[in-house]
Structure formats: C-alpha cells, structure tokens
Amino acid sequence: MPTDLKRDLGLPETTAIAIGAMVGSGIFILPGIAYLEAGGPSVVAAFLVAAVLIVPAALSASEMATAMPEDGGSYVYVERGMGPLLGTIAGLGNWFMLSFKGALALVGGVPYLVYVAPAIADATVPIVGDPVIALALAIATGFIVLNLVSTSSTGRLQFFIVGVMVVVMGAFVLLGGRHVDPAQTDGLTAVGEGNFLAATALVFISYAGVIKIAAVAEEVKDPGRVIPQAMLGSLLVTTLLYVLVVYVAIGIVDVDAAIGQGLLAADGEGAIMAIAADQAIGTVGVIAVTVAALLALASTANAGLLSASRFPFAMARDDLAPSAFATVSERFGTPVLAVATTGAVMLVMIAYLPIDQVAKLGSAFQILVFILVNLALVGFREGALEEYNPEFVSPLYPWMQLFGMASGFVVLTQIGLFPFAAAVAVTGVSVVYYYAYARHRVDREGAARTGVRKEVGDRAIERTEELFADDRTYDALVAITDETSEPGARDMLRVAADLSRLGSTHVSAVRFSETPQHVFGGHAPDVAQADDPDWLPFDERPEWLAAATRAGGGPEQSSITAGSLPQTDTATEATLEAAAGTAVDYREVTAENVRQAVVDFATFEGYDLLLLERRREDFHRRLFGVGDTEWFLRNAPCGVLLVEDRGFDGADEIAVVASRGAYDPLKLLVADAIAEETGARITLLQAVPEAAPEQRREAIEDYHAALISILTVPAQSRVIEADDRVAGLARFAEPADLLVTGTEARGFGGELLGRPDDRLVDSVDCTAVMVQPESERRVGFLKRAVLDRLF
C-alpha cells in the first residue's frame, strides 16, 4: 500500500534499531535475577538457548517483511496470513506491550543511578516527587518530540546510542575478562538442572526487539536486502554480546555475597554490571557502565516508542483502528497521531504503573506473538497467494516454523501463572475490541483461510468426481414403521426408484411392525417373505407398494411395470408409473424393538442406503430424550435419506443446499440421480454472511463451477448473501419442486432451537430429502466448525 512515509533507514540504522530494542534490561537488569532462577552459571546457556529459540521467528519475519515491506511488522504478517481477528490481537498486544516496556525501560536505570549517586534516592521534585520519575518523563517527552519530527533522526540517534553501548560493553568484556573467577563459572553447561527452562523463559524478552525492524519496514531503504541482514545480524551481535557480558559479570560478582551485602536485592535485581565494573576496573568502569546502561535503557524506550506507534498506524490503514491514526504529517512525514497517542500512553505508564513482573509479562506476550509470526508464514506458504513473492525465503520450511511454535509453547509453560494470565487478558481485550469495533469494517480474510478453503474444496471436488465415476451397486432399504404415513411410504419408494441410475440399484421395501414384549427377553425378529407360510398374498399387501417380488433374484423376481398388476386406486397407479422398471422386493418384520430391528436388518443385509420418513416432532423434543429419527441418524450402518412427504410427483427444479461446509458427494449424487430420472434442473444453493469477504464468495462460485462440470444434468449456481442463513436459503429454495439438504448434527443450540437443515426443511412447502452419508456420523464438532467458517 503506497504511503507518504520516507525510506530513510539504511542497514546501519536498521540494525541499530534492532540492537537497541534488544539490548537493555537483558544485560543491565536480568542477569542477576536469571542467575538465581537458573540456580547458577547456566544462566549464560539460558541466554544462548533463548537466542536459538528466536531464530525461527526471525527467519519467518524476515521472509514476510521482504514480501510486504509495510509498517506494522508482526501485526501485518499475522493479519494478512491468519486474518483480521488474530491480526488485531497481534497489533493491540504489541502496541500495549511495547509502550509498557518502553516506559519501564526509562525507569529501569534506577539501581545504576542510585549506585553512583546514592543521594538521588533522597531528592524530591515538585509535583512529581520522585526525581527518577521526573527524569524519565522528561526523556520520554524528548523522544516523543523526536519521533514526531523525523524518523531518520531517530534512526541516527539510535545508531549513536548503540555504538556507545557496544564500545563500552566491549571494553567491559576485554578488561573484566581478566578478573573472571573460574570457580564462579563452573556449571555453564548444566542446562538440564534446576529451573533452566524457567530462566530461559525469563530472558526470552531480551531478544523481543529482533522483529521490531519489521515495524518500520516501510521506512527502510532496499527492504528486500536490508531487513534480513539487519534482523539476523542484530540477533547474532546481540547474542554474542549477551553471552560474553553475562559470562564476565557472573565470573566477577559473587551474586549470593552481593545479596548479603545489600548490593543486590533478594531476587537478584540491581546494578550488577556496575558492581562487576567496580570490582574489575574501578571508578572509571562504573561511570562508563552506568552511562552505557542509561543509554541502553533510553534506546530501548526510543525503539519501543518508534515501533509501538506504527501498530495503530498500520491497523488504521486496514480499518481495524480509526482512520486518523493513519494520517501522515505533510511537513515531517511521520504518523503524528499514532506517535502522540503512544507517547501519551507511555507517560501515563511512567507516572503510575509499577515495574514488577515486567520481564515475565513482556516475555509471555512476545512468545505468543512469535508463535503467531511462525504460524502466519505457514498461512502464506500454504495459501499459495500469487502476490506473495518474498525476496528472502526462510530455510528448512516448515520444520523451522514448527520448531519455533512448539518450543514457544514449551517456554510459555515455564513463565508463571500471572504473566500467562496477563497475556491471556490482553488477548481477550483484543478479541472484544475486534468484535465491538472492527469486525464489520473489514472485508478480507487471511491467506491461511483462503489456502485451506481451496485445499478443502479441491478435496471435496476430487471425492465427488470419484463417486460419480464409480459404477458400484447400491442397495436401498425403504423402512416402513407403524408411524409411517401411506403418502410418505409412496414418496420414499418413488425416490428409491429414481435412484436406480446410481447403478444396478436394488430396492427393498420392508414393513417393521412392533410385537408385544415377551416376559423373557431375547426374542428374535420374525421376517416374512415369499417362501414363508405367513407371506401375504399380493391383494393383501399395502397400496403404497407398487409391486413385490421375492428377495434374492431368480425366476420369481421381476421388474415393476405399470399395468402388470391389479389396479387399485389413483395413488397406486401413480406409484406404479413412478417405480416402473425398478426391481423391488417386499418383506415384513415383527420385533419387540422396531428401531433396533431396522438397524440390525440394514447391517446384516448390507444395505448402502436407508430411506426413512422424516418425523418433524422428533427434532423438537431432543432435549427430553432421543427420538426415533435421531436414533437412526446416530446408529444407522449406512447412508440415511430422510424423506419429508409433501406430494412428490416429479420435478422441474431441484434445490441442493449446503447449509454448512462443502457439499457431500452423496448428496450431489442423489440429487443428480433424481434430476436425471425426472428431467429436472439442479440449483446449487449456499449462503454467506452479508459482511463476508469477497474472497469467500468468489471461492464458493469457483467451487460450484467445478461441481456443475461433474453433474450429468443442467445446473446453476446461486450464492446468497444473508445474515439469517436459513431464511435466505428458504427464500430461494421455495420455488423448487424438491429440496435436497443434509442432516448435520449440532451442539446444544441445535438441541434447543433445532438444526439449521431441519429449520430449512420446515420453512419450505416442497418435498425434501435430507441426506446423511455414512461418514457424517464420524465428523466431529471441530471439523464442522472449521468447514462452516471456511465455506
């Protein structure tokens, strides 16, 4: 997206921003705390391991930054890759946390100031009171003005600050290294002992700034080359600096003794670098390290302000925040409102917020962001978007990203309950904000959903092609119970007859009658057929049956032809005509448990389809027990067709609805068979919300076009925009002569209010066939929810 931002940041400035965002508390505050957490010198290895765990996110961010050199960094990648909801979480979360960390960095030099000038702690400043807070507010105000005026000035200042800090800490390593006590560094490699992972989680935040370069990617010269070099180079330099400085510090300072002398707090917090410089170098070293610490913490705050302000700026351009945040000053070329608002938040935090749990709070959310960054890259790669063309490609995909996500979850479990809960709370606030403000302002979705939908659609199309090309034989069982109406029985037989084109379809019509329960259980069902003494003569068989022949073929089996049997009434004649040319056998079964007998009969006889009359009342009492229809849907060993009788005597138009997810191939095959036998046209109906992204509608239309090419009858596509999905589908399905839909199982809402497919059938006047393939009984809630969101 073109903007008026200036590309003023070269490789040195960009690298300095990343190093400045990383080097701060990681060197000057955390070593003593992490030493106690790790239980000894293995804290050095903790810094090294944490850096290794950062590498996947750095590589992922580098690739995406070269494909999308836009301000916003991880927010942009997560939003484009995983969609606006996760993008909002990443954007708001990063904004709050970077502002928080930047504000706290300005007061993080307190131990160093107190160490060199103890009298500072006793001073009083009017209004503010605490002199350290007053100084932090003044420095923060200066950084705000600087960021409002010029980003390039900010980059040059960052370069200067980082240069001074690296020189000082390099001298500290060279001069202090001669005073390292080997006994104090014994156990550097004890990575499996104590709370090593907890220490790793604690220092994780030390590297959080590595991907902050991407937050100003739109202001970087030659981003395709500079961003990967700056990101990976800064991580290498910072890791080396951390390992060497922390090694020297713990090799000089006896942490336990320093705590006993009051030089460090009981948790290890304090001016540990100044203490080490004092013991190894002297006063000059103390002053130099203190200046470096103040500069480092100031640079962290400056980089935090610069990076944090770009998140509301980028979100505003994507309609996830008010548009005013995207306004760029014509005079200075900076996002004035975004910088000013972020600065104001930092000032409030400096004045009022405590500094406890800063490291763990920051680490918890940064770990979540790194996980999302790795996930976003997977979304882009699997989404296969044509416009995604990165100049730098992350190696070892997808194993690098999977390692980054898995290791992030492991470290997250070690960070503590409170920081984890805080990160969850920020996530929850972001979700509420998205649904309250942003959801209806965006019309797009992430690359991951687009890619997964395409993959799911392609697989559904392949399954449909395979089923239509299969010449298998289908055995259909028309199950008639004492509750089945005579018109319903006729319609079921008519539908079964129309399905004859599925192959050499064999239709069985079986009446299941209930017999009184015996005192002693275990009474087996009685099956009556042509060679049984109780077999009924034809003139005593029900009118809905067009003809009956003995099961199993042979000379006694014949096809039904209108006029070959005694005519009884108009309804029977119509049924005879409908079933003409179809082989049907008729049986009667008596059993104590009718529904169990139906399932057992279908199981042992090996039927492929079970046709039942849909009983509307069964779907409105499911909270008070399972009705017969619901029981059949759960226990049938084969596909189930529920027929809602409303007088079916042929069709000109058949509406086939996929109320949720992709079309099941069996539903299409049934509709195609009936349409071919009746000469009808098929209309494929699906509904999307009115605010659904355009990509979603286009994907469904493409999917319909592929299905239409598979069907053997004329067909058309209709994608409906309606927030009330059932009402929208019913309005367009009403003119059809037959509705073919599904029997999707739902959760508690479906139990209470009825399932969408049932409500759709109840909303139209035409005959309906609800199709449940055998595989549908194994589809879980999660899969149905995912398919619903995709389609």
UniProtKB/TrEMBL annotation:
Q: Name one Pfam family in it.
A: AA_permease_2
Q: How does it sit in the membrane?
A: Multi-pass membrane protein
| Keyword presence, Cell membrane | yes
What GO molecular function terms would the record report?
transmembrane transporter activity
Q: Does the keyword Transmembrane helix apply?
A: yes
- Name the InterPro entries for this protein: AA/rel_permease1 (IPR002293), APC_superfamily (IPR050367), Rossmann-like_a/b/a_fold (IPR014729)
Gene Ontology CC: one annotated term: plasma membrane
The membrane-spanning stretches of this chain are 15-36, 43-61, 81-98, 103-120, 132-150, 157-176, 196-217, 229-250, 270-297, 336-355, 361-380, 417-436
What keywords is this UniProt entry annotated with?
A: Cell membrane, Membrane, Transmembrane, Transmembrane helix
Which top-level group of life is the source organism from?
Answer: Archaea
Annotated localization = Cell membrane
Read off the PANTHER family from this record. AMINO ACID TRANSPORTER-RELATED, INNER MEMBRANE TRANSPORT PROTEIN YBAT
The name this protein goes by in its record: Transport protein (Probable substrate cationic amino acids)
User: According to the entry, what is the taxonomic lineage of the organism?
Assistant: Archaea, Methanobacteriati, Methanobacteriota, Stenosarchaea group, Halobacteria
Q: Identify the coding gene.
A: cat6
